[in-house]
Task: inverse folding
């Protein structure tokens, strides 16, 4: 049975974004100090640290002060805007499976689509490369991190599941057991 309380709009967790922003800044500063140490390896690590965590810092800062929602759950689709490689609009009929999982100590809501190349087809350039790397690490094409949400991944799953008929029926069967 579809969720009648839609649209459901979820904003990013400002507290989580603030923590991640702080730690990104720490790694940028550490990278900066590594540039002035002896040894080429330290300098390389410093450059990589500044580049990677500098990009993280810029993205997180923009998300912290941005008023856009992280997710919008609509009757006909999900709009995903939780990470740098966000996919955007995902029709419910494109979803094969959804599940909550943990990877490297962090919770995610994974969404597998019927098309295994769904995410890479929707992105370009640098984002496409990141999307491919992501697909090589976890089975889901779309991975919504707990840190990007103001609700738990389990709560999000329960909001979204009724919109996907085959997942809603599995959920109903499990409840009846």
Result:
């Amino acid at each position: 049975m579809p969720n009648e309380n839609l649209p459901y709009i979820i904003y990013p967790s400002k507290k989580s974004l603030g923590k991640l922003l702080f730690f990104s800044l720490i790694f940028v500063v550490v990278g900066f100090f590594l540039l002035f140490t002896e040894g080429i390896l330290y300098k390389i690590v410093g450059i990589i640290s500044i580049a990677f965590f500098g990009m993280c810092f810029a993205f997180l800062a923009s998300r912290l002060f941005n008023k856009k929602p992280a997710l919008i759950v609509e009757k006909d689709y999900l709009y995903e805007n939780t990470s740098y490689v966000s996919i955007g609009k995902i029709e419910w009929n494109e979803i094969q499976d959804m599940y909550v999982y943990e990877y490297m100590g962090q919770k995610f809501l994974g969404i597998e689509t019927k098309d295994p190349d769904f995410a890479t087809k929707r992105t370009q350039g640098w984002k496409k490369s990141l999307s491919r790397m992501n697909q090589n690490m976890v089975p889901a094409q779309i991975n919504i991190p707990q840190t990007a949400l103001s609700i738990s991944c389990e709560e999000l799953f329960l909001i979204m599941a009724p919109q996907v008929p085959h997942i809603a029926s599995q959920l109903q069967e499990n409840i009846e057991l």
